[in-house]
Give the backbone structure.
Amino acid sequence: MRVDARGRRPVAARGLSLVLAAGVAGLLVAGCGGGELSKADYLKEVKAINQKFADTVEKTFSSPELQNPSDLSKAADIIRQGADQLRDGAGELDGLNSPSEVESSHDKLVSGLNAFADDLDKFANAAASGNISELQSFAQQIAGQNLPSMTQVQSAIDEFKAKGYDIESA
């Protein structure tokens, strides 16, 4: 994976990783089931899962099919897999009984993740059809971190933080 002068991944990759991490975290947290989770349990599960997901994101988005796409059809397949994982995670997250104090943030996150999965499907379709202008537009929105679904997810994460729930840290 390419890095900048400071040894960090490009902003777009970091932003995408964050959004996707939140989605997969939802998938794995939802597996806990039961009633409303306490704040400590909710955070414990999310943080444990974020590390597993970060590894998955790194592997997926550093795949040769996405880094040097010689076959846009294969790149589209990789993108669709990510969209499917997000959608599954959002669905399971939706079934989780979050602590009541973060219920609206939780719902906003679920909605944002579903919207982002839909955006990834559009990106995959553009890749599969070879629509370069649409690919460039999507890439610019990701790089600028102004894709509406990404901003919705980030807004939800910010709401969690404001309520004392740091769902991002491992």
Notes: Residues 88 and 115 are 12 Å apart (CA to CA). The mean pLDDT is 74. The longest helix spans residues 103-129.
